Amino acid sequence: MSKGKSIIPFERKLESCLNCGSELHGENFCPYCGQENTDKNISIWTLIQDFLGDYFSFDSKLFRTMIPLIIFPGRVPYEFIEGKRVKHIPPLRILIFTSFIFFFIWGITFELENEQPADIAEQIDSQLQEQLEEQAMTGDSLLTLGVEGANLNLTGVDSIEELTAFIKAEKIRGLLDNGYKIDHAVDSICADNSDFERKLYTQIGKMYSSDTATIAKYFVSNLSIIILVMQPFLALLLKLLYIRRRKVFRFISHLVFSLYYHGWLMLMGIIALLINEVIMGFQPQVFVSFLALIYMPLALKKFYGQSWIKTLFKSFLILILYIGLIMPFFLVISLGVSFYFF
Predict the structure, then answer these.
(1) Residue 238's CB: how many other CB atoms inside 10 A?
(2) Which residue in 8, 187, 268, 316 is deepest, having the highest Cβ count within 10 Å?
């Protein structure tokens, strides 16, 4: 490429800067604010470049983004897709930053319960355990063996299979308490079980051997990844809800809205955690949920510009589909994956 050749196609150049409004004469970058002289259409690669470039060099952008993001719903993503990208912190960066702060504060302020469960295995008569493993028993035979009067804490155990699994888990825990390694404990108790069941008991043994704080920290760390994975799904839902405006709002526009919205959620979570440390009886979940119910329709109204009736209806659909179905689904996936790889 020659020294004087333009790096931006001429048809994408503008006569005025989208960020500051200064008059341009074919320059590749605005001489006043430095923004690239191109149209307002952005791509996935643009978001990645914005994230990698000058990583977390927030300076005054922090306040120019955070304050309007909090008090003016929908303004920041709207201005971003309209071309005012130098003015604000990019959406992917703001979400990662706020998520990091949120989970960091949560890890400090969250009061973990370190009480270990009662050693239920000691309550179970050894003779009962042997007979349960030797034969398939009916509910009547359990009563014959005197389980009804054995004072067992079997809440939630509804079948012989569940009771047998419960007993095996407690036996493994007993071996771990006596110095056995997890693999040896599982081999001695679950020799006849399938590979999946052995993996299940191994993970249970690992959790028995770990303190509550370690378990909670591991599960919470995976939630931050799940939040990032969820972004395209809200963007896809928004694309479907605004399918008639697909010529105006491309998928990347919906993704920008989703990233900034979740960044706002993380900010509200940070504020809620801090308030919770000051006010006794404060409910952070209720606080954030209430604000989210108000913020979502206001942000949609500003960003998409539809009537209030359509906006409120679509906000309700998002509440049902995204918060009621998609988020719980990914939460269950997160818990399952975290348990499997713990």
Answers:
(1) 24
(2) 268
Residues 84 and 103 in one domain: yes
Summarised one tens digit per residue, pLDDT across range 184-216 is 666 666 666 666 676 776 777 777 766 676 777
pLDDT bucket at 277, cuts 50 / 70 / 90: confident
- 58 phi and psi angles, rounded to 5 deg: -75, -45
Out of 191, 210, 229, a domain closes at 210
Nearest alpha carbon to residue 96 among 45, 56, 53, 47: 56
Are residues 304 and 188 part of one domain? no
| Residue 217 and residue 331 in one domain | yes
| pLDDT, position 11 | 46
Q: Which residue has the tokens 């979502």?
A: 296
Same domain, 200 and 219: no
Range from 59-73, 208-222, 226-240 carrying the lowest mean pLDDT: 208-222
3-class secondary structure for 217-284? HHHHHHHHHHHHHHHHHHHHHHHHHCHHHCCCCCHHHHHHHHHHHHHHHHHHHHHHHHHHHHCCCCCH
Residue 31's domain comprises 1-39
Question: For residue 156, which of 146, 170, 166, 167 has the smallest C-alpha distance?
Answer: 166
